[in-house]
UniProtKB/TrEMBL annotation:
<keyword id="KW-0805">Transcription regulation</keyword>
<dbReference type="InterPro" id="IPR001647">
    <property type="entry name" value="HTH_TetR"/>
</dbReference>
<dbReference type="InterPro" id="IPR011075">
    <property type="entry name" value="TetR_C"/>
</dbReference>
<feature type="domain" description="HTH tetR-type">
    <location>
        <begin position="16"/>
        <end position="76"/>
    </location>
</feature>
<dbReference type="InterPro" id="IPR036271">
    <property type="entry name" value="Tet_transcr_reg_TetR-rel_C_sf"/>
</dbReference>
<dbReference type="Pfam" id="PF00440">
    <property type="entry name" value="TetR_N"/>
</dbReference>
<dbReference type="InterPro" id="IPR050109">
    <property type="entry name" value="HTH-type_TetR-like_transc_reg"/>
</dbReference>
<dbReference type="InterPro" id="IPR023772">
    <property type="entry name" value="DNA-bd_HTH_TetR-type_CS"/>
</dbReference>
<keyword id="KW-0238">DNA-binding</keyword>
<protein>
    <submittedName>
        <fullName>AcrR family transcriptional regulator</fullName>
    </submittedName>
</protein>
<keyword id="KW-0804">Transcription</keyword>
<dbReference type="Pfam" id="PF16859">
    <property type="entry name" value="TetR_C_11"/>
</dbReference>
<dbReference type="InterPro" id="IPR009057">
    <property type="entry name" value="Homeodomain-like_sf"/>
</dbReference>
<feature type="DNA-binding region" description="H-T-H motif">
    <location>
        <begin position="39"/>
        <end position="58"/>
    </location>
</feature>
Amino acid sequence: MVKPDSAPVKGRPRDPAVEARVLEATLELLAEVGYQQASIDAIARRAGVSRPAVYRRWRSKADIVAQALFGQSERTAPRVSGDLRRDLRAWVDAVVARFGRPEVVQAFLGLMADLPDKRRFGLELVRPRRAHLAGTLAQPGVRPGVDQQVFLEMLVGAVFLRVATGRDVSEPAYADELTELLYHAVVGT
């Protein structure tokens, strides 16, 4: 995720409210018209700022959308409770909450197509949660050698595929089934 350029600039200091207005306008447009129609011009108009004000902070629409969708999100992850099933369900619920939002559903495929550095984006999205995931996967009962990255790919990939194919991720039965599949994958039964 490319964050607004923080290098010192000459002249008048940047107004932090501009960034907040642009990000809010981006979320609104994504929910209303989708990724393809949410142009930088439309974002700037909705935010009440100029195109140059947007381009001074972000290099592309994909950068704005990535920050609007994922840069402002809560940087916490589910805590380890000692109950592996409950902890895995918390991970499932967190991923469903993140990827099931209407603006994410509307934008994610277009964003992935436009982002020049998908690997870095993926790493930045996961980095704040990695220590929590390590704790979850270090609990008694988890078979040795469970790879964090593969676990995340299974979890996020399952939710993403469901969202990408227009299916509802908010059904409790879906979260129950995904939790059970992940549980059996990490305990090896």
